[in-house]
Amino acid sequence: MRMERLFTLNDTQAAALGAGILGTGGGGNTYVGQTWLEKELRDRGGGCRIIDADSVPDDALVCCVGTMGAPTVSNEKLLRGDEFVVGVRALEDHLKARIGALLISEIGGSNALKPLIAGLQLNLPVVDGDPMGRAFPELQMDTFAIGGVSLSPFALVDSHGNVVIMDHVDSPQRAESYARALTIEMGGSAALMMPVVTGRVMKQHLIRGTLSLAEKMGHAILAARAGGHDPAETVAALGSGRVLFRGKITDIERRTVQGFARGRMRLAGFGAAAGQMEIVFQNENLIAWQDGRIICTVPDLICVLSLDDGEPIGTESLRYGLRVAVIGMPAARELKTPAALAFVGPAAFGYPDVTFAPMPGDLL
Amino acid sequence: MRIGIDVGGTNTDAVLMDGQQIIASTKTPTTPNVSDGIIAALKNLVADSGVDVATLDGVMIGTTHFTNAVVERRRLQTTACIRLGLPATVCLPPMVDWPDDLREVVGGHYYMAHGGHEFDGREISAFEPAEIRQFAEDIGRRGINAIAISSVFSPVNVSFEERAAAIVREVLPDAHITLSSTIGRIGLLERENAAIMNACLRELAIKTVGGFKAALAELKITAPFYISQNDGTLMNADFATDHPVLTFASGPTNSMRGAAFLSGLKDAIVIDVGGTTTDVGVLQHGFPRVAALAVSIGGVRTNFRMPDTLSIGLGGGSLVVLDPLKVGPQSVGYEITSKALVFGGDVLTTTDIAVAGGKADVGDAAKVAHIDKALISAVEDRIEEMVNIAVDRMKTSAALVPVVVVGGGSILIQRQVSGASEIIKPGHFAVANAIGAAIAQIGGETDRIFSLAEMTREKALELAKQEASDRAVAAGADARSIEIVEVEEVPLAYLPGNATRIMVKAVGDLAAGR
Predict the structure, then answer these.
(1) What is the model's pLDDT at position B495?
(2) Could you tell me the pLDDT band of residue B309, with boundaries at 50, 70 and 90?
(3) Which domains does chain A have, with CATH numbers?
(4) Neighboring chain B residues of A69 at a CB cutoff of 8 Å
(5) How does DSSP assign B297-355, residue by residue?
(6) ipTM surpasses cut 0.85
(7) B453 in contact with chain A, both atoms CB, cutoff 8 A
(8) Which of B24, B83, B244, B300 has the maximum number of C-beta atoms within 10 A of its C-beta?
């Protein structure tokens, strides 16, 4: 199937909300990305071209565009604004070839909308899809790395216009650790163009249709707000999942382990006999227990949203007393192969004793 | 003795307190220039109590005046914003996320300068005095007198904002300058938004606080006066004139703090029943539990911490509709005294049901004598259900908790509330806001990123607590009474050295003496 559509100002809020849901608690706040995208759309008029993966020729080059770093930093030290253009142009110079389309590196959270900004600036289309179908804390937790696609060359750009291109990196893990060290030196937040792949490789690995899915989820939330009803059921159904729990947060525990915000939340249902839920997170929500029994584990999606208005709630904003709905959705099937589970299953997050018990179905 | 005053949109309430005792209270209409209403309320209080105003230790005022100015887009001043952060931050200039009408009202002027810091205190780029001077001159040429200055990571390092302010002051000695670091926390757009809103309210603040001062002077009250802020603590008059934006959430905060005082409880659910809505909140250690998500004021996103309240459409003026039975959310509001049946009107309200059921004695009970018993009990069932659901949503444990009911519509709460250990309807419930203002303490806050690789967690907490305590003392608290009331640690993902954001709030009693 080949298709092209225009993403306009009418789509930004829904896409941001849906990306927040697919962030599964992590991925960073979408507010800055949404505000920035709206500004670019207002300033330039028109819209960003969204294309299907099949519209990209096999021999064309495409690259993922986003920012790397701590959300708290990127919400304070905003970008200069041309980092994506600088990075894509530098990669083109390095490869002596043109990039034909941009990819979303992570549909969950703040990075979902950045390629659309870059697409407007560079006049390039953005492919509807991403290699995660949610958010993950590390670069190598995507279908490219899982599929053995090299993450190099890649480019990191800071707000001074400094560009670092890593021409060759021998493993996704080292790509992650080198990029992270540079990002910290660049002030804790930097623009990242990674990986660059051909259209053919992209089509093999990309989880398709995730931008459209985010938009549908967002529109469902907006419609529920307008109609004054609870959007959780509709959102869950869009992602082939179900509402796991409704309740309030009764306890939050946090600690930092090697730069990651790990923690545990406890929830109590409404009413006397409504049960308990416990969810552990490492930036993203990882495992949910209902009344002591595991009911959902990574890579399946565990999303927490505000009961009042369906606003997705990041693990950084969790607070005692919040009233929430917890949604469970099956991961995209690309994340559930034995090879993929080695990268994104419970064991990869330090839970070797937890077996991945998939929810029925696939995200899309 | 202390006087607490609540200047609301409709009423100005005042209470006179002697220590923990309420000596007198009064309710008068709010007037357009606020000071007339305050004068009327104070005159009532003095007449009722016979208090010698020379014996007053302080007057505490809570007001929604500044919130209303922003919401109504009125009385706001043209403002310029200088942001230090180049070459970073250009992608989203100041006021980019404001509603167009509000941006137009304040002029939308901004300047981007070099400077700013990284999360770890390094400079993004060097401070350029000549650049700031040039911007200040331009601001002067435009005749703008209100200026907000924001620098990237100023909660970590305030020096660039202070240096910029010093230069602006040299060029424009009479300018009103607001530094973002004095207003908000980490999160550039939200903190900057609050700073700009503060700057555009400065002239109104001078006038309003001046009006408070004049009202007190007219009644020969020489005691110092204070304005209550978002978190239920006080600012002195000068500080309030400089930081009007810090009053934005003081209304609900004062109401809950007043409920805590009236009931003598520090941990409880508070149900504030008004004419149109019922707000349910939670008291923790005597302070309102705060909301986690960002709060918009007049359409502008801020990162103020607002009380976490659940609002339902139930009040003394709520319409009762039959077939099928529906209670609220429509309400006759302030028109209840002409529209409700008991007041000779033709609209069936919850108040009419309360009177018909013999639970309240207002208006003319004969006008509702015809109401059928089955309907009365059906409406009471519905109200009970609405309240129970709201309370259950706000509770965080299955344990029974006390419930405090305040507000003019509290006659509606007649039944048991499920999950409540007891229901307390304190006296003076109608002036809880003014009482909340009267009992407010002085607070200080800090919000910084600490590297726990360089120091222990205990050391970092100790430093943060000291900083918050010092700020409370600087704001007028008695150092011996300082208490740490809130500590929040958020480990930051993706940063080295176990970077942790620590927020601490300290409060203390008002220092004695003038």
Answers:
(1) 66
(2) confident
(3) 4-208 (3.40.1610.10), 230-349 (2.40.390.10)
(4) 494
(5) ETTEEE----B--EEES--TTEEEETTTTEEEEEE-GGGHHHHBGGGT-SB-BHHHHHH
(6) yes
(7) no
(8) B244
Quote the minimal CA–CA distance from B208 to chain A in Å.
33
So what's the pLDDT on residue B497?
A: 67
Interchain pair B452, A260: CB under 8 A: no
DSSP for B401-453?
Answer: EEEEEESTTGGG--S--TTEEEEE--TTGGGHHHHHHHT-EEEEEEEEEEETT
Domains of chain B: 1-72+202-248 (3.30.420.40), 77-200 (3.40.50), 311-430 (no CATH), 441-508 (3.30.30)
- The per-residue pLDDT for range B15-64, each reduced to its tens digit, is 999 888 899 999 887 787 888 889 999 999 999 999 898 888 889 999 88
Higher pLDDT, B167 or B484: B167
CA distance B209 to B220: 16
DSSP conformation class of B123: B
- Cis geometry, peptide bond prior to residue B329 (ω within 30 degrees of 0): yes
Query: Which chain A residues have a beta carbon less than 8 Å from that of B97?
Result: 35
Average pLDDT of the residues in A318-339: 92
From residue B441, give the alpha-carbon distance in Å to each of A3, B252, B477.
Answer: 63, 16, 8
Cis geometry, peptide bond prior to residue A153 (ω within 30 degrees of 0): yes
Say yes or no for a CB contact (<8 Å) between B396 and A254: no
Helix (H, G, I), strand (E, B) or coil at A109: coil
Across the interface, whether the CB atoms of B289 and A250 are under 8 A apart is answered no
A44 touches chain B (CB under 8 A): no
Query: Residue range B439-455: average pLDDT?
Result: 84
Q: Which residues of A touch B492 (CB under 8 A)?
A: 70, 72-73, 256, 261
What pTM was computed for the model? 0.88
Of B92, B310, B494, the CB nearest to A36: B92
Query: Checking DSSP bridges between strand B483-491 and strand B499-508, what pairing results, if any?
Result: antiparallel
Which of B188, B293, B491 lies nearest to residue A78, judging by beta carbons?
Answer: B188
- pLDDT at position B416 is 85
Residue B514 pLDDT more than 50?
Answer: no
Tell me the longest C-alpha to C-alpha distance in chain A.
66
Contact A73/B495, CB-based, under 8 Å? yes
